[in-house]
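Reviewer comment 2.1 asked that we show a complete input and output for one of the modelled complexes. We chose the zinc ion case, as it is the one discussed in the main text.
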Amino acid sequence: MTHANPFAPFEIIEGDRTKGLVLVADHAFRELPEEYGDLGLPAAEFERHIAYDIGVEALTRRLAALMGIPAVMARFSRLLIDPNRGSDDPTLIRQLYDGTIVPGNYPITAEERQKRIGTFYEPYHQAVSAMIASAAGQSGKAPLVISLHSFTPFMQGRERPWHVGILWDRDGRAPRPLIEMLRREPGLVVGDNEPYDGALRGDTMYRHCTSAGLAHALIEVRQDLIVAESGAAEWAERLAPMLDALNQQADMHEVRFFGSRTGPV
Ligand SMILES: [Zn+2]
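Response of the prediction step:
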Protein backbone atom coordinates (compact mmCIF):
# COMPACT_ATOMS: atom_id res chain seq x y z
CA MET A 1 0.00 0.00 0.00
CA THR A 2 1.35 3.38 -0.95
CA HIS A 3 0.68 6.60 0.85
CA ALA A 4 -0.02 9.69 -1.20
CA ASN A 5 1.64 12.90 -0.17
CA PRO A 6 -0.53 14.91 2.18
CA PHE A 7 -2.86 17.23 0.31
CA ALA A 8 -1.56 20.80 0.21
CA PRO A 9 -4.44 23.24 0.81
CA PHE A 10 -2.70 26.14 -0.94
CA GLU A 11 0.08 27.00 -3.36
CA ILE A 12 2.34 30.01 -3.14
CA ILE A 13 3.79 31.50 -6.32
CA GLU A 14 6.94 33.30 -5.33
CA GLY A 15 7.52 36.85 -6.49
CA ASP A 16 9.00 40.16 -5.47
CA ARG A 17 7.23 41.09 -2.25
CA THR A 18 8.84 44.54 -2.20
CA LYS A 19 6.43 45.57 -5.00
CA GLY A 20 3.54 45.63 -2.53
CA LEU A 21 1.15 43.80 -4.87
CA VAL A 22 -0.35 40.40 -4.04
CA LEU A 23 -2.56 38.14 -6.18
CA VAL A 24 -5.04 35.71 -4.65
CA ALA A 25 -7.06 32.99 -6.37
CA ASP A 26 -9.75 31.28 -4.31
CA HIS A 27 -11.13 28.98 -7.01
CA ALA A 28 -8.20 28.17 -9.31
CA PHE A 29 -8.21 24.38 -8.63
CA ARG A 30 -10.75 21.58 -8.82
CA GLU A 31 -8.71 19.03 -6.83
CA LEU A 32 -10.14 17.03 -3.97
CA PRO A 33 -8.10 15.26 -1.30
CA GLU A 34 -8.11 11.49 -1.95
CA GLU A 35 -10.27 10.67 1.08
CA TYR A 36 -13.18 12.62 -0.45
CA GLY A 37 -13.19 10.68 -3.71
CA ASP A 38 -15.38 12.62 -6.11
CA LEU A 39 -17.94 13.71 -3.47
CA GLY A 40 -20.33 11.32 -5.22
CA LEU A 41 -20.43 13.45 -8.36
CA PRO A 42 -19.97 12.31 -11.96
CA ALA A 43 -16.64 13.33 -13.52
CA ALA A 44 -18.39 15.76 -15.88
CA GLU A 45 -19.26 18.00 -12.94
CA PHE A 46 -15.54 18.62 -12.41
CA GLU A 47 -15.32 20.10 -15.91
CA ARG A 48 -17.83 22.77 -14.93
CA HIS A 49 -17.63 26.10 -13.17
CA ILE A 50 -19.26 24.61 -10.09
CA ALA A 51 -15.97 22.81 -9.28
CA TYR A 52 -13.54 25.69 -10.00
CA ASP A 53 -12.92 28.91 -11.89
CA ILE A 54 -11.94 27.71 -15.35
CA GLY A 55 -8.77 29.41 -16.68
CA VAL A 56 -7.83 31.18 -13.46
CA GLU A 57 -4.85 29.01 -12.59
CA ALA A 58 -3.19 29.83 -15.94
CA LEU A 59 -4.17 33.50 -15.67
CA THR A 60 -2.72 33.74 -12.15
CA ARG A 61 0.54 31.99 -13.08
CA ARG A 62 1.04 34.14 -16.16
CA LEU A 63 0.18 37.41 -14.44
CA ALA A 64 2.45 36.62 -11.49
CA ALA A 65 5.29 35.69 -13.87
CA LEU A 66 4.83 38.74 -16.13
CA MET A 67 4.74 41.15 -13.19
CA GLY A 68 7.19 39.28 -10.97
CA ILE A 69 4.74 39.36 -8.06
CA PRO A 70 3.64 36.72 -5.56
CA ALA A 71 0.31 34.90 -5.51
CA VAL A 72 -1.58 32.59 -3.17
CA MET A 73 -3.95 30.00 -4.67
CA ALA A 74 -6.31 27.65 -2.84
CA ARG A 75 -5.63 24.12 -4.15
CA PHE A 76 -8.98 22.52 -3.33
CA SER A 77 -12.24 22.60 -5.22
CA ARG A 78 -14.88 25.01 -3.98
CA LEU A 79 -17.18 21.97 -3.85
CA LEU A 80 -15.19 20.74 -0.82
CA ILE A 81 -15.45 24.10 0.95
CA ASP A 82 -15.64 27.57 -0.57
CA PRO A 83 -12.79 29.79 0.61
CA ASN A 84 -14.60 32.85 -0.75
CA ARG A 85 -17.33 32.65 1.89
CA GLY A 86 -17.48 33.57 5.54
CA SER A 87 -17.16 30.50 7.77
CA ASP A 88 -20.78 31.05 8.89
CA ASP A 89 -22.14 31.47 5.34
CA PRO A 90 -24.85 28.93 4.39
CA THR A 91 -23.12 28.34 1.02
CA LEU A 92 -19.72 27.56 2.59
CA ILE A 93 -20.19 23.85 1.81
CA ARG A 94 -22.77 23.57 -0.92
CA GLN A 95 -25.27 20.76 -0.89
CA LEU A 96 -26.88 21.99 -4.09
CA TYR A 97 -25.05 24.01 -6.74
CA ASP A 98 -26.47 25.25 -10.05
CA GLY A 99 -28.90 22.34 -10.28
CA THR A 100 -26.46 19.65 -9.07
CA ILE A 101 -26.85 17.86 -5.73
CA VAL A 102 -23.50 17.17 -4.05
CA PRO A 103 -23.92 13.76 -2.32
CA GLY A 104 -20.62 14.02 -0.39
CA ASN A 105 -21.87 17.22 1.24
CA TYR A 106 -25.31 16.02 2.22
CA PRO A 107 -25.89 15.22 4.93
CA ILE A 108 -22.84 16.67 6.65
CA THR A 109 -22.01 16.53 10.36
CA ALA A 110 -20.89 19.55 12.35
CA GLU A 111 -17.66 17.67 12.99
CA GLU A 112 -16.98 17.19 9.27
CA ARG A 113 -17.72 20.84 8.63
CA GLN A 114 -15.22 21.87 11.31
CA LYS A 115 -12.67 19.45 9.88
CA ARG A 116 -12.89 21.04 6.42
CA ILE A 117 -12.60 24.52 7.92
CA GLY A 118 -9.56 23.53 9.96
CA THR A 119 -7.80 21.43 7.31
CA PHE A 120 -8.39 23.39 4.09
CA TYR A 121 -10.18 26.71 4.56
CA GLU A 122 -8.19 28.17 7.46
CA PRO A 123 -4.73 27.12 6.23
CA TYR A 124 -5.47 28.88 2.92
CA HIS A 125 -6.64 32.04 4.64
CA GLN A 126 -3.67 31.97 6.97
CA ALA A 127 -1.40 31.72 3.92
CA VAL A 128 -3.14 34.77 2.41
CA SER A 129 -2.71 36.68 5.69
CA ALA A 130 0.94 35.68 5.93
CA MET A 131 1.61 36.74 2.31
CA ILE A 132 -0.06 40.12 2.83
CA ALA A 133 1.91 40.66 6.07
CA SER A 134 5.13 39.67 4.35
CA ALA A 135 4.49 41.97 1.35
CA ALA A 136 3.70 44.80 3.78
CA GLY A 137 6.92 44.14 5.69
CA GLN A 138 9.13 43.90 2.62
CA SER A 139 7.59 46.81 0.69
CA GLY A 140 7.23 49.03 3.74
CA LYS A 141 3.67 49.92 2.72
CA ALA A 142 0.14 48.56 2.73
CA PRO A 143 -0.11 46.08 -0.16
CA LEU A 144 -2.65 46.29 -2.98
CA VAL A 145 -4.50 42.96 -3.23
CA ILE A 146 -6.03 41.64 -6.47
CA SER A 147 -8.34 38.63 -6.46
CA LEU A 148 -8.76 36.61 -9.68
CA HIS A 149 -11.91 34.69 -10.63
CA SER A 150 -13.81 33.59 -13.73
CA PHE A 151 -17.51 33.33 -14.44
CA THR A 152 -19.62 31.13 -16.65
CA PRO A 153 -21.03 32.75 -19.83
CA PHE A 154 -24.47 31.26 -19.16
CA MET A 155 -26.33 31.22 -15.86
CA GLN A 156 -29.83 29.81 -15.49
CA GLY A 157 -30.26 29.86 -19.26
CA ARG A 158 -29.29 33.52 -19.65
CA GLU A 159 -26.28 34.72 -21.54
CA ARG A 160 -24.03 37.19 -19.77
CA PRO A 161 -22.85 40.08 -21.92
CA TRP A 162 -19.70 41.05 -20.03
CA HIS A 163 -16.18 40.00 -20.94
CA VAL A 164 -14.87 41.02 -17.55
CA GLY A 165 -16.34 42.35 -14.34
CA ILE A 166 -14.82 44.27 -11.46
CA LEU A 167 -16.41 43.46 -8.13
CA TRP A 168 -16.14 45.69 -5.13
CA ASP A 169 -17.81 46.84 -1.94
CA ARG A 170 -17.15 50.45 -0.84
CA ASP A 171 -13.44 50.96 -1.40
CA GLY A 172 -13.31 52.30 -4.97
CA ARG A 173 -9.59 53.14 -5.00
CA ALA A 174 -8.59 50.20 -7.22
CA PRO A 175 -11.94 49.28 -8.86
CA ARG A 176 -12.80 52.71 -10.32
CA PRO A 177 -9.56 53.28 -12.27
CA LEU A 178 -9.44 49.61 -13.25
CA ILE A 179 -12.95 49.80 -14.73
CA GLU A 180 -11.96 52.97 -16.59
CA MET A 181 -8.82 51.38 -18.03
CA LEU A 182 -10.69 48.26 -19.13
CA ARG A 183 -13.46 50.33 -20.76
CA ARG A 184 -10.85 52.06 -22.90
CA GLU A 185 -10.03 48.70 -24.49
CA PRO A 186 -11.87 48.46 -27.83
CA GLY A 187 -14.75 46.00 -27.88
CA LEU A 188 -14.67 45.05 -24.20
CA VAL A 189 -17.91 44.95 -22.22
CA VAL A 190 -16.92 45.66 -18.63
CA GLY A 191 -19.19 44.92 -15.68
CA ASP A 192 -19.19 47.19 -12.64
CA ASN A 193 -20.25 44.83 -9.83
CA GLU A 194 -21.48 42.49 -12.58
CA PRO A 195 -22.10 39.58 -12.95
CA TYR A 196 -22.22 39.66 -9.13
CA ASP A 197 -22.26 42.23 -6.40
CA GLY A 198 -18.87 42.40 -4.73
CA ALA A 199 -20.23 43.20 -1.27
CA LEU A 200 -20.29 39.85 0.49
CA ARG A 201 -19.77 39.75 4.20
CA GLY A 202 -16.95 37.47 5.26
CA ASP A 203 -15.64 36.70 1.77
CA THR A 204 -11.92 36.76 0.98
CA MET A 205 -11.77 40.46 0.08
CA TYR A 206 -13.87 41.36 3.12
CA ARG A 207 -11.74 39.33 5.49
CA HIS A 208 -8.31 40.40 4.26
CA CYS A 209 -8.88 43.84 2.73
CA THR A 210 -12.12 45.61 3.70
CA SER A 211 -11.58 44.76 7.38
CA ALA A 212 -7.92 45.77 7.21
CA GLY A 213 -8.31 48.96 5.14
CA LEU A 214 -6.27 47.61 2.20
CA ALA A 215 -6.97 48.71 -1.39
CA HIS A 216 -8.22 45.80 -3.46
CA ALA A 217 -10.26 44.67 -6.46
CA LEU A 218 -11.80 41.41 -7.56
CA ILE A 219 -11.46 40.68 -11.27
CA GLU A 220 -13.90 38.22 -12.87
CA VAL A 221 -12.99 37.19 -16.43
CA ARG A 222 -15.52 35.28 -18.52
CA GLN A 223 -14.27 31.70 -18.52
CA ASP A 224 -14.47 31.05 -22.28
CA LEU A 225 -11.97 33.87 -22.84
CA ILE A 226 -9.29 32.24 -20.66
CA VAL A 227 -10.05 28.51 -20.98
CA ALA A 228 -7.28 28.21 -23.59
CA GLU A 229 -3.73 28.94 -22.48
CA SER A 230 -3.47 31.56 -25.28
CA GLY A 231 -6.49 33.40 -23.89
CA ALA A 232 -5.07 33.36 -20.37
CA ALA A 233 -1.81 34.75 -21.76
CA GLU A 234 -3.64 37.48 -23.65
CA TRP A 235 -5.58 38.53 -20.53
CA ALA A 236 -2.45 38.49 -18.39
CA GLU A 237 -0.79 40.80 -20.92
CA ARG A 238 -3.84 43.07 -20.90
CA LEU A 239 -4.09 43.24 -17.12
CA ALA A 240 -0.39 43.51 -16.21
CA PRO A 241 0.14 47.13 -17.32
CA MET A 242 -3.16 48.16 -15.71
CA LEU A 243 -2.26 46.59 -12.38
CA ASP A 244 1.20 48.07 -12.63
CA ALA A 245 -0.29 51.55 -13.17
CA LEU A 246 -2.57 51.09 -10.16
CA ASN A 247 0.29 49.86 -8.04
CA GLN A 248 2.26 53.04 -8.79
CA GLN A 249 -0.43 55.19 -7.16
CA ALA A 250 0.34 56.17 -3.58
CA ASP A 251 -3.29 55.90 -2.44
CA MET A 252 -3.27 52.15 -3.20
CA HIS A 253 -0.79 51.73 -0.39
CA GLU A 254 -2.49 53.63 2.40
CA VAL A 255 -4.57 51.94 5.07
CA ARG A 256 -8.06 53.45 4.76
CA PHE A 257 -11.36 52.18 6.06
CA PHE A 258 -14.38 52.60 3.82
CA GLY A 259 -16.69 50.18 5.61
CA SER A 260 -18.98 47.72 3.88
CA ARG A 261 -22.40 47.94 2.27
CA THR A 262 -23.18 44.77 4.22
CA GLY A 263 -23.02 46.67 7.52
CA PRO A 264 -20.39 47.71 10.05
CA VAL A 265 -16.96 46.14 9.49
ZN1 LIG B 1 -14.50 32.32 -8.26
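The domain at 21-140+168-188+197-253 is CATH 3.40.630.40 (Aminopeptidase). We note this here for comparison with the apo prediction described in Section 3.2.
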